[in-house]
Amino acid sequence: MPAIVLVGAQWGDEGKGKATDLLGSQIDYVVKFNGGNNAGHTVVVGDQKYALHLLPSGILTPGVTPVIANGVVIDLGVLISELDGLEARGVDTSRLRISANAHVIPPYNTVLDKVTERFLGKRRIGTTGRGIGPTYADKMNRIGIRVQDLYDESILRQKVEAALQGKNQLLLKVYNRRAIEVDEVLAELLEHAERIRPMVTDTVLELGTALDEGRTVLFEAGQATLLDVDHGTYPFVTSSNATAGGACTGSGVPPTRIDRVIGVFKAYTTRVGEGPFPTELDDEHGDHLRTVGAEFGTTTGRPRRCGWADVVIGRYATRVNGLTDVVLTKLDVLTGLEKIPVCVAYDVQGRRVDEMPVGQSDFHHATPVYEELPGWTEDITAARTFEDLPVTARRYVERLEELIGTRISVIGVGPGRDEVIVRHDLLGRDEA
Ligand code: GDP
Ligand code: IMO
Ligand code: MG
Fold it and tell me: What is the distance in A from the centroid of ligand 1 to the CA of 428?
């Protein structure tokens, strides 16, 4: 029984939530290993639409145990309201397990995230303003607050005091804000501590034991390859490791146990926030993709920047993550276009570049080299086998597969749970 990692192959919002939900009934555990409530996953089940931020999407499948692992940063208030919201809609959340080593997002870091962005002005990252960056920075600076600290008030007070010592100087003297009181922070953190206490556990032990017992564990990444702090378009990235390697450090499950890595790749490209994006379209084609694809952020509601598919990024995602399968989402959004350009390489100041440029300046200056593929006009949302697709849609999928270098095992033809074409089993059970 395998351990599977599922990652975003582009800049996020590829449809990871739906892909996880699709695997729901075949898995025992679903683990969130990075990020926090900067993520926004929309899952459509029948006429019900769910927006998940902090909880892994597998929570919607009865019987699956959701895990928030050590690599996650948790906003306690958001966690509780997400749990309450799901319970009110009849979703059982009682199985949730939370790592005692996960870090908590204290209220001062949400404030700092927002003021830092304001001060950066036109050099801002365009963060979600959820305190993600400052909380990971505190973790590395060894002044972070962990879930386990919530259960020793004297330790918690000491840690908050230590963190606020520097942060209040920054708020007062650099950002011209009011200082934050220790008691105010403690009250906010402790408000939710008892509620989550029964869920807090040693998730490393629990996941290791589950794998020993032959259970299937899915690791669901937040964000995506190009938002990874090491492998993405730094500094326009998030502050965690969203690539496959992050599943190991973020959960304590070793690389030797990972069997498969699934990359979710949208049939075109989107990005939220600032940073380079070679295939971005500032014309009516971009508007078309945004409107038809409903490309507005699940977390912040911001319109997503849209552009054509970029297989240089697809190849890069294959290499960095070791993809075994690709889930190609939103093919239906391309219906009705006469020609569909696919970026196969870049032109960097007159030079053709076939792989991700090593220098960030080159990537900023890269213009796409396109190959144009013929489009289709038939509605494909009812297609359930590859053969149901028009020949040009099949050709588009096969060409992407060839250029990305990983088999496309599942194709999304609509937002609904059933709107998929499964070509290969994602758990690899159809392999010799
Ligand atoms: P995530 O962050 O990667 O989970 O993706 P988001 O949920 O932020 O954005 C993906 C959006 O596309 C959601 O609104 C999904 O309901 C929707 N979606 C997923 N797969 C498909 C698909 O194959 N076709 C269409 N039309 N929509 C899809
Ligand atoms: P899912 O999981 C798309 C982007 C932000 C910003 C940058 C840093 O839904 O794919 P942060 O708040 O993380 O410090 O912001 O990363 N970003 C996302 N973009 N999808 C996401 O998550 C994102 N999470 C963060 O827009 O550019
Ligand atoms: Mg999203």
Answer: 24
Q: Which CATH superfamily groups domain 103-196? A: Adenylosuccinate Synthetase, subunit A, domain 2 (1.10.300.10)
Q: Do domains 3-91+202-422 and 103-196 have the same CATH topology?
A: no
What is the CB neighbour count within 10 angstroms for residue 86? Answer: 18
Domain boundaries, the chain: 3-91+202-422, 103-196
310 is an active site residue? no
Quick one: which ligand is closest to 304's CA? Answer: 2
Q: Which atom of ligand 1 is nearest to the CA of 333?
A: 26
pLDDT of 307 over the 80 cut: yes
Query: Would the pTM count as exceeding 0.70?
Result: yes
Backbone dihedral angles phi then psi of residue 17, each to the nearest 5 degrees? -60, -45
Going from the Cα of 347 to the center of ligand 3, the distance in angstroms, rounded, reads 30
Residue 428 pLDDT class (50, 70, 90 cuts): confident
Class of 3-91+202-422 in CATH? alpha beta
Are 423 and 394 in contact by the 8 Å Cβ rule? The answer is no
Q: How far apart are CA 427 and CA 48, in angstroms?
A: 27
The token duo for 413 is: 């033809």
Closest-CA residue, ligand 1 atom 14, reads 42
Mean pLDDT of all residues in 104-122 = 96
